[in-house]
């Protein structure tokens, strides 16, 4: 009885190990690629917060020009 229980525990541990190992085979290169991309971005010094603020501002301008308010409708361009 104890031998059967020990075999089941070892089999469960082996299955968990193989599952974790196969998952890390997939995630490992993704994590290294993310780290490499982050290092390159930091080296380039691109300020993505500034870029996102500019995109947001252009989107607001586009929305306000596309969907004019009723008070703006009386004015002409």
Supply the key terms.
81% helix, mainly alpha
Low-confidence stretches: none
Total strands: 0
- Helix and strand composition category: mainly alpha
Largest sheet: none
> pLDDT average, as an integer?
81
Q: Characterize the overall form.
A: elongated
Order of helices and strands: HH
Provide the gyration radius in Å: 28 Å
Alpha-carbon distance between the termini? 88 Å
> What is the quaternary state of this protein?
single chain
Taken as a percent bin, the fraction of beta residues is under 5%
- Please give the share of residues in helix: over 70%
Number of helical stretches of at least 4 residues? 2
């Amino acid at each position: 009885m104890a031998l059967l229980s020990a075999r089941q525990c070892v089999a469960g541990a082996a299955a968990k190990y193989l599952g974790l190992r196969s998952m890390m085979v997939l995630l490992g290169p993704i994590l290294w690629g993310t780290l490499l991309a982050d290092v390159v971005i930091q080296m380039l010094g691109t300020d993505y917060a500034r870029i996102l603020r500019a995109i947001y501002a252009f989107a607001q301008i586009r929305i306000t020009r596309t969907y004019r308010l009723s008070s703006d409708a009386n004015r002409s361009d």
